[in-house]
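Help! Submission page says 'invalid entity' but I think these are all valid:
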Amino acid sequence: SQTIHQWPATLVQPVGSPLSLECTVEGTSNPNLYWYRQAAGRGLQLLFYSIGIDQISSEVPQNLSASRPQDRQFILSSKKLLLSDSGFYLCAWSVVARTGELFFGEGSRLTVL
Amino acid sequence: ELKVEQNPLFLSMQEGKNYTIYCNYSTTSDRLYWYRQDPGKSLESLFVLLSNGAVKQEGRLMASLDTKARLSTLHITAAVHDLSATYFCAVQGGTSYGKLTFGQGTILTVHP
């Protein structure tokens, strides 16, 4: 069966510090991978998606970046965090050729102080 | 640009009552999804609706899709406290590489 792991679960970072969130998927090959952010107030915003290794598309301009160095690994990074980067970050995977359903990781809660 | 709107955004129900959450979307799509989110947790998939007229049921929840009206409904029957959560609908656009656009979410609170 397929599983998705995301870490760290919680982190508190000062403004201007770097960020790295990691996500790995097991039990499936060549999934589409996604990073969403959920700010306070509930809505989910798509940040990045990837259809393959080193193929990343950004949905919104920001100071975050994403990388996919391996088929089932997706990394979200920042060189210098802003207060506005605080939120709940969710990694997800899907296989579009099937139902296209997204399966989410446990989430990473980031607080920037 | 695909827009997805849910209503109501807040729903306070008494146990045992019935209610419906509505999800409208702005462009043609035949793939719609419902998710549940408990406070502080990630999203859990509830229903996948892949064609016009699709209806899925699980326990006290039933979801349906009308692609011509660009409308999905999530019907709650005889609500119980355990159903308290935030419910999201999400729609996949045509050539969107599987990207889902989410509604704002409906916060459901079920009272005794």
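Support: the input was valid. A stray whitespace character was the problem, and the output above is from the cleaned input. The mean pLDDT of chain B is 93.
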